[in-house]
Design goal:
The chain contains 4 helices and 9 strands. By secondary structure, the chain is an alpha+beta fold. It comes from Cordyceps militaris (Caterpillar fungus). Pfam families: DUF7053.
Length: 198
């Protein structure tokens, strides 16, 4: 049996980097070294683009997935009900719809050798909120990214696309995961805004 990848409900499923030879103590120990990092990315929305149209794009989950530059394929999967995916209370937003889950395969060739396969399979949980969407991504090696995407009015009368991301990962992986997020967010935001302008 192989372990290491969590499905949409958080259960462990097969992943080639951890095998049955890894003791329960080893797997448990890895969680002790987890750390959390918070990132905030903001893009100004061009004048003339209705905030509601951009928010609708975020809430179209397949559309959201297609803006991932590494995505090779995706498929809808059953959403667990016991327990169902929820939004952490600390985010201060409420769900406006039912959770929606997908399995997404990314092709990533810039990872350090041996860290992950070039094909990285993750589960995505989507929960719509007012003016946006909450997304939880569970990846191999117990990496989890929780992002709250909102379309907000700025003080100067402009509209902003705001992404507030909380990353949970081992100390060993955190630098790599953060770097991927920090180097890729502008392109993803630009792609979402461009699509909404069509």
């Amino acid at each position: 049996m192989k372990l290491g990848l969590s499905d949409c409900s958080g259960r462990d499923v097969a992943h080639p980097l951890l095998t049955s030879q890894d003791s329960p103590q080893t797997l448990k120990m890895s969680s002790w070294f987890n750390t959390t990092s918070t990132l905030r990315h903001v893009s100004t929305v061009p004048k003339g683009l209705p905030a509601s149209k951009l928010a609708q794009g975020l809430q179209n989950h397949e559309n959201y997935i297609k803006h991932n530059p590494h995505m090779a394929k995706y498929e809808a999967i059953a959403t667990p009900t016991d327990p169902a995916p929820t939004i952490p209370e600390a985010r201060g937003v409420a769900a406006t719809g039912e959770p929606d889950c997908y399995r997404v395969t990314d092709k990533i060739h810039t990872l350090p050798a041996g860290l992950w396969d070039s094909d990285v399979v993750s589960t995505y949980e989507f929960i719509n909120v007012d003016n946006g969407v909450f997304v939880r991504i569970r990846s191999p090696m117990n990496v989890m990214m929780e992002s709250l995407w909102l379309v907000k009015d700025a003080e100067d009368g402009k509209v902003e696309l705001v992404e507030e991301q909380v990353i949970t990962a081992s100390r060993l992986l955190m630098g790599t995961v953060k770097s991927m997020s920090e180097t890729g967010w502008e392109g993803i935001h630009a792609s979402m805004i461009k699509k909404a302008l069509e």
